[in-house]
Amino acid sequence: MDYLIITLKVIVGLSILNVWLLRSGKETQWRGGNADNLQEEFKAYGLPVWFMWTIGGLKITFALGLLASIFLTGYPALETYSALGIATLMLGAVGMHFKVRDPIKKALPAFTFLVLSVAIGLL
Question: Counting beta carbons within 10 angstroms of the beta carbon of residue 61, is it exposed (0 to 12), middle (13 to 18) or buried (19 or more)?
């Protein structure tokens, strides 16, 4: 079971870091509305730029917390708070996709990370 949780942490943590640090300015098929980058995506949701930076900072922090919890096993709260923090933010992301009436396909990554984060937090 430990290897499964570690694998999930790596998948979720690195994926979030990839989206927010490496691909934030790039177009993907998962962006909300007709956005070509994260800033346009948040604009499509009707959210201000400062909110994008706040959410991005939280997601990066929680992703790093998940990855750090692989090595800092003496701090189980780090894993729990990071996983449930990501789950909460992903719930909001799914909600934003529905708000702008995106096809379900666009919400699948956020929903997948929501489910994986809840699994990490509960297992």
Answer: middle
Mean pLDDT, range 23-52, rounded to an integer:
92
Reference 114, options 90, 96, 79, 98; nearest CA is 90
- The residues, any chain, with a CB within 8 Å of residue 61's CB and separated by 6 or more, are 85
Nearest to 120 by CA among 68, 91, 80: 80
Q: Which two tokens stand for residue 36?
A: 């070509």
pLDDT of the residue at 1: 63
d(CA 10, CA 4): 10
pTM for the model stands at 0.91
Q: What is the DSSP string of 26-42?
A: S--TT-STT-SSHHHHH
Instruction: Identify the CA nearest to 20 among candidates 50, 72, 55.
Output: 55
